[in-house]
Amino acid sequence: MSDDIPVIDLAAALAEEASEELLATVRRAAETIGIIQVVNHGVPAEVIAGFNDGFGRVLDLPREQKEQLASPTGHPYRGWRQWPDDFGRLELERFSIAQYDDTDATEAAGLSPEHATLYAHANVWPPQEPGLRAATHRYHDAFVDVARRVVGLSARVLGVPSKTLPLGDDVYTTVVVNHYPKWPHEDASEEEKLLLLEHADSSAITVLHQEGDYAGLQGQRPDGTWTPVPIRPDALQVSTGTLLTNWTEGRLRPGRHRVVAGGSVTRRSSAVFVHPSLDTVVAPLPAFADPDGSDFEPVSVWERASGNVEEYLQVFGRPEQLAAWRENRPYVAEVTV
Fold first, then answer.
1. Cα 49 to the chain's mean position, in Å?
2. Entry pTM
3. pLDDT digits (tens, 9 = 90+) for 220-276
């Protein structure tokens, strides 16, 4: 176990009689690294296995079949995609699922017409796995429940009422499966072995399950060094996102993390990113606000979500990917090595 990233018995930490030592451990991690692992979290093992096994079979399909699962409109956050590095070496495969399948589903859920436009690009469900949609919904709902309980625990360790952090009932979420392939390029430098660059999630909180043969996920300590997040089949990884940091005027540190390659083995992680509702504007809450002024600007969840694709592709997308998106057609990156 990493000394920096503690393994927390979630049920024990939420209990009325939780020990001060346990709560202090949670608070220390929340204020210094922004990542914890939770066990006894209440998510049935079969819910995790049903989701992971289904997507494992999808990601093990031949490439020509996976290409058919790319977004037909070039949306980078729908269906299957992969990205190679600048040398054509495959770094990551990803499958992304939106909260609602399409605009018809948003109407049934009661979203406003404006917010429904976020789902004009439909989800892609693999026909090879007819039960995967239902498995994904079970996984999503269970992980959102964990997120709510950890947000309540965060309020508790900060000494404020559990409802102080207003995640709300009407959350905005996304689901992502990341598959990191074998990395046989032994001559690569340490920087070239980074499969996912360091960042903090723009969510309020992220709940993730990882599996594989090496601890490729790393969290950043306050001094800038990195510590591995061990793989425990019974544990979920919970990271503070930048919205929760904003709400608490920086009391809760965003969980900055990255993923490094592990040589001849593969790993997979599956995450649910949880935000407050799309109509929320996140700013420091009165319980944490600095009377001398804040360093945190208000963040509109809707403005960030609605502009996310274009901003992402402008910064990280290759020219041919951006062209495919603007021309409403599929994009599959070429892998040469």
1. 18
2. 0.95
3. 999 999 999 999 999 999 999 999 999 999 999 999 999 988 766 778 999 999 999
How many Å is the maximal CA-CA distance in the chain? 58
Residue whose pair of structure tokens reads 């790393």 in the numeric block: 218
- Pick the closest to residue 176 from 297, 29, 51, 68 (CA basis): 51
At CB < 8 A and 24+ separation, what contacts does 298-305 make?
A: 299/242, 299/243, 299/246, 301/172, 301/243, 301/275, 301/276, 301/277, 302/114, 302/115, 302/278, 304/202, 305/118, 305/172, 305/275, 305/278
- The amino acid occupying position 3 is D
| Pairing between β-strand 35-39 and β-strand 7-9 as defined by DSSP bridges | parallel
196 domain-assigned:
yes
The residue among 167, 175, 170, 161 whose CA lies nearest residue 147 is 167
CATH of the domain at 166: 2.60.120.330
User: pLDDT band at residue 1, thresholds of 50, 70 and 90?
Assistant: very low
Does residue 77 belong to any structural domain of this protein? no
Amino acid identity, position 295? D
Calculate the CA 37 to chain-centre distance. 14
The pair of structure tokens assigned to 26 is: 């949670």
Nearest to 280 by CA among 295, 263, 298: 298
